[in-house]
Amino acid sequence: MGKGIRTRSGADPVGQWQTRIENFGSVEVSDALRDLLSGSPLVSREGVLEVSSLTDLAPNRHRISIRVPDALYVADLVVTALAANAIPDPDARPSIPSPDSWMTPSPTGEDNTWELFNCLLHTLQSRGN
Amino acid sequence: MATDFGPVPASQVKSESNRIFDALEQGRRVLISRYGKVVAVIDPPSVARHGHMLAAYAVLGLGTPPELTATEIAQGAPGEHIRHAEEGTSCLVTRNSKVYGVLLPHSGEPTKSDPDEEESVLAQFEEAHPDATPAEFAAEVARLKAGDSTEAQIAGSVGTLRPELSYTVDALADTRLWSDATLITAVALEQIGQVGPARLSLNRLIEQLGDEDDLFLRRRVRAAQVELARLYVSTGDPDAALRIAADVLREIGPDSTTTADSATIPVQRSNYEHA
Question: What is the separation, in whole angstroms, between the first and last Cα of chain B?
Fold first, then answer.
């Protein structure tokens, strides 16, 4: 269970974005978001529920997308990895280099398990799939 | 700009090929991922960014650029092209001999906006519209990204078009492709020495699309005007070039209110320098 997941306001991300999380028109996407934002492990499976990161040129910042191929909308989460000393109650694991620290590949390499920790969540957005 | 499509894992490109081509037709960039990271993108074709590759594809004898066809994708063989793109070798993505996109490596996204500011706007939207539907929320995000209502309607993709929008999404996408194809034709004609027909192509584009409100098409018209001015300079008619360039500068110069277009100014000025 990942610790040290912050928002700019200091609020719990699942609570802050509760309305938005339920407004993706897909139970699978909403459930995946709740898992990811609360620090629970989330398994990414190609063709089923796909979690991917797009690296930003800003240091340690990424856009993490949660996509179910048949769903109407994709969830985009903009997140910055933080050093442990920037967080009051950090996870023992370093999140930098990111996003690799948040990803554990399966033995076959096809699936990844994502688990966020020691990070700042900037925004949660939606876009047409 | 339109919102991205994907990320689509490299292993799923075959099964999602129809949706990928649909997205490219709508002017959307397609993200390709491998092992959880975006490693390549397919950009919709653009004369400004991919002019040389597009001209080379359109005109025999200019050297054939690498190509990933819809048939190759359907046969499940896009992996090699994607790996080459990751290593820096771009290729055209085609279907029925038409260019739908350009496959490129992805090496980092330039920061275009402050995500905290975007979050602030979205929180205000939610407060003002507590019953917003998923489509309305996605359209608000698209509007925020695009800064242009027409693009937002397209990028939302699920919502309905505004009554005042005269194009359907498909018709607008076709017109955009037509504008790109016409510009490519003009560039290619010039390269093979057909300056007169090149001018005719550019004039046709300017006349037919000169009154459009769509930001993409307005940029294409300006690109055509600049190209036409450059042609006039190269053929010894600076008066005509100055007249056309003045029209462009009047619209996008420092006094213009179309600030979204300011990024195009240095590119256009460099054309004059080369001329």
Answer: 30
